[in-house]
Design goal:
The chain is α/β, with parallel strands linked by helices. It is built from 11 helices and 5 strands; from the N terminus they run βαβαβαβαβααααααα. A 5-stranded parallel beta sheet has the order 2-1-3-4-5, sandwiched between helices. Helix 9 packs across helix 10. The two termini are 29 Å apart. Pfam families: GerE, Response_reg.
Length: 213
């Protein structure tokens, strides 16, 4: 059973999230508090959740400040931001603060449940509408890290990985780069081998995780 905490000041939105979590037999909601300050008033070292779903804009202590402090005090707890905001600055600040993923509150129940498991497995789940934006922000703020991550790849493999991270399918990558789908799959095979991953989701997660370190 996965123990989950929820930090959300909007009661209606919080209820919606609770209903989504209740659809899984593998999740249990340990607590719901309304802001970051209340979170630290509640947490006890002998009763910590494995993951916290964190809103961003809250009174008293916002979600980004709370995430930064949470990772300082309890570094093993994962934080999954779940918010209505897709603001560029908030995205970047959330990852820098230590968030492991970023979902919008209109996320489907199955996706939210899967994202929690994905986060605990070391992934970086993001809503499709913000994944590309998040990556672009990270690269703009530190291009040296991009070079370190992809130095082992050929220029064409870097092109393929960049398009993959932006959410493109094999066919879309093929059309964009004017190569066959067979060629794209061959490039992906080489990328997976060099990054020591099993597939596209793991490759994207590894790429982004190295950028935010």
């Amino acid at each position: 059973m996965i123990n989950v905490g929820l930090v959300e000041d909007n009661l209606l939105l919080a209820q919606g999230i609770k209903e989504k979590l209740a659809l899984s037999d593998d999740l249990t909601l340990n607590f719901h508090v309304h802001d970051g300050k209340a979170l630290f008033d509640y947490l006890e070292p002998d009763n910590l959740p494995e993951i916290i779903l964190m809103d961003i804009e809250m009174d008293t202590m916002d979600g980004i400040t709370a995430t930064r402090e949470l990772k300082r005090r309890f570094p093993t707890i994962k934080v999954l931001m779940i918010t209505v905001l897709d603001d560029d600055d908030k995205l970047f600040e959330a990852f820098k603060a230590g968030a492991s993923g970023y979902l919008l509150k209109d996320v489907k129940p199955a996706r939210l449940i899967n994202a929690i498991s994905e986060t605990l497995d070391g992934g970086i789940p993001m809503s499709p509408t913000i994944a590309s934006k998040a990556l672009d922000l990270l690269l703009q703020n530190d291009t040296s890290k991009q070079k370190n991550v992809t130095a082992q790849l050929s220029p064409r493999e870097n092109d393929v990985l960049d398009l993959l991270v932006k959410g493109m399918s094999v066919r879309q990558i093929s059309d964009t780069l004017f190569v066959s789908e067979k060629t794209v799959r061959k490039h992906l095979e080489h990328i997976y081998q060099k990054l020591q991953v099993k597939g596209s989701r793991e490759a994207i997660a590894k790429f982004v995780k190295r950028l935010v370190k």
